């Protein structure tokens, strides 16, 4: 084995920028005090992965004409979990490297163990490598999930060189690494979980995935801000980044694709946490609207879109006069500055005096929605709470609001209306420019509005 030399360098923990000396501000991302000390390998061992920079390999490399490349359907492995396959773009691509992040206890290991069960039942060899749990602990969770075939292999190891040798010898079709922060490379002197170790470990796994055609899924810890711990370069190295979201006190989970080289990044998957594991939620809109209050002011249903899927959610607002000189504004699940902007539009364009009122806006269920199409729903909820008048429980709205008070069109209007009609809604407020696209429906009264004042006149 070739020896390697390690030299001390400094890495930016935000973007992965490398420097030979410490700097207060990163030249790459302009963040302050993000440099941490690490080691850089000046020479790499040739056995670390599937690539080699030798002269013989360079001579063998021949360009391929794009039109001659053939893609087969079997290059994707269907996991048997429809929501996960939707987010991945149809399944796990052969030779891909996928990163799964999320808060502790959100269900990352449970989901990947269910993937291993389904793949092993299909006759595919799967290797589950854990650096955090023992074999007995994994077995206890596996018994709760279901039966596994003999194609499922377990390994408790954190030494990446030994893991690489086992992968080369056993040649599994899929490998699960739980988690990347526990893996260490002997050629790097820093502790496991450091910037250097995460970079080098991911690099070795990337070489194994591309060189051997093995699909690798790695679990990543997250920081307080909700991003994957370690350098941001980790997200650039992998082929797909999936985030598990959801309130720890709620039973549902949302799997969101942040990056995907083989599919759309706008898709989401909805799961429900049960005793036997994560179960798919077929009708997410109906599930999200369970428990809606009756005859309560400040509550309205809005149609938002996550990728190609329309989703109905409930927006609640509470507006009351402030007892202090400075009114308080608070939002949960949506942009705080956006709500302040919409309240300013209401006050300027419609004469609604909200400057002396406290305002609280909440998107129920712990969802985070930043789509501008929910603007109309936020405005209607604020107006309903301000006037203390309950709305029709069968009313739904969507539309973007501009600074002039106009209601602007949004995409996929027809799909949003169809989703609401399927769940029994009878009235829909939407931008006037989208009325023609939606057409006439048998069980839905469509009301097109051009301005915020039109909304006030028709509602109250």
Number of helices: 13
Strand content: 25-35%
How would you describe the shape? Answer: globular
CATH superfamily of the largest domain: P-loop containing nucleotide triphosphate hydrolases
Distance between the termini: 79 Å
Instruction: Provide the structure class.
Output: alpha/beta
Helix percentage range: 25-40%
User: What's the CATH class label of the largest domain?
Assistant: Alpha Beta
* Second CATH tier, the architecture of the largest domain: 3-Layer(aba) Sandwich
Task: Kindly describe this structure.
The protein has helices at 55-60, 82-88, 108-121, 135-145, 160-170, 195-212, 233-237, 284-288, 336-350, 375-387, 413-422, 435-438, 452-459, and strands spanning 6-12, 18-19, 35-41, 76-77, 92-93, 97-102, 126-130, 152-156, 174-178, 215-220, 240-245, 252-260, 268-274, 277-280, 299-306, 309-321, 329-332, 357-363, 395-397, 400-401, 407-408, 427-431, 445-449. Mean pLDDT is 86; it is low at 1-5 and 41-58. The chain is globular, with a radius of gyration of 26 Å. A hairpin with a 2-residue loop joins strand 13 (268-274) and strand 14. It is 28% helix and 27% strand. The protein has a nine-stranded mixed β-sheet with strand order 8-7-9-10-6-11-12-13-14. Strands 17-18-16-15-19-22-23 form a seven-stranded mixed β-sheet. It has a three-stranded antiparallel β-sheet with strand order 2-1-3, with no helix packed on it. The protein folds into three domains: 1-41; 75-282, 3-Layer(aba) Sandwich (Rossmann fold), CATH 3.40.50.300; 287-459, 2-Layer Sandwich (Ribosomal Protein S5, domain 2), CATH 3.30.230. It is of the alpha/beta class and 460 residues long.
């Amino acid at each position: 084995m070739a020896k390697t030399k390690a030299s001390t360098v400094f890495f930016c923990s935000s973007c992965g920028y490398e420097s030979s000396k410490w700097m207060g501000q990163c030249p790459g991302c302009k963040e302050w005090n993000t440099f941490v000390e690490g080691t850089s390998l000046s020479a790499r061992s040739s056995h670390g992965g599937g690539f080699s920079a030798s002269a013989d390999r360079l001579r063998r490399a021949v360009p391929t004409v794009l039109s001659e490349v053939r893609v087969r359907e079997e290059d994707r492995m269907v996991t048997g979990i429809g929501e996960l396959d939707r987010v991945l773009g149809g399944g796990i691509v052969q030779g891909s490297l996928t990163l799964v992040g999320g808060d502790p206890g959100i269900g990352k290991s449970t989901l990947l163990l269910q993937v291993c069960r389904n793949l092993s039942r299909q006759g595919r060899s799967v290797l589950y490598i854990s650096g955090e749990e023992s074999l007995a602990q994994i077995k206890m969770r596996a018994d709760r999930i279901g039966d596994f075939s003999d194609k499922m292999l377990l390994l408790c190891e954190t030494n990446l060189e030994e893991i690489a040798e086992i992968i080369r010898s056993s040649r599994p079709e899929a490998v699960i690494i739980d988690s990347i922060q526990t893996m260490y490379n002997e050629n790097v002197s820093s502790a496991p979980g450091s910037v250097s170790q995460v970079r080098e470990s991911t690099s070795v796994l990337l070489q194994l995935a591309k060189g051997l055609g093995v699909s690798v899924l790695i679990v990543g810890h997250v920081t307080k801000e909700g991003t994957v711990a370690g350098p941001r370069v980790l997200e650039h190295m992998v082929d797909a980044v999936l985030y598990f979201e959801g309130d720890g006190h709620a039973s549902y989970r949302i799997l969101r694709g942040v990056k995907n080289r083989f599919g759309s990044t706008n898709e989401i998957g909805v799961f429900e946490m049960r005793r036997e594991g994560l179960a798919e939620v077929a009708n997410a809109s109906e599930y999200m609207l369970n428990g809606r209050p009756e005859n309560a002011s400040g509550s309205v249903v809005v149609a938002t879109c996550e990728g190609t899927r329309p989703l109905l959610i409930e927006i609640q607002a509470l507006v009351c006069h402030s007892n202090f000189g400075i009114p308080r504004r608070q939002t949960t699940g949506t942009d705080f500055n956006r709500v302040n902007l919409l309240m300013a539009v209401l006050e300027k364009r419609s004469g609604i005096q909200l400057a002396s009122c406290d305002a609280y806006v909440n998107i129920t269920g712990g969802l985070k929605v930043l789509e501008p199409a929910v603007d109309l729903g936020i405005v209607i909820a604020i107006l309903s709470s301000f006037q203390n008048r309950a709305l029709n429980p069968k009313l739904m709205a969507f539309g973007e609001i501009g600074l002039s008070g106009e209601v602007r069109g949004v995409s996929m209007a027809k799909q949003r209306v169809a989703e609401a009609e399927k769940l029994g809604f009878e009235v829909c407020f939407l931008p006037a420019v989208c009325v023609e696209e939606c057409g006439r429906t048998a069980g839905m009264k469509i009301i097109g509005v051009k301005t915020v004042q039109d909304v006030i006149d028709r509602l109250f």
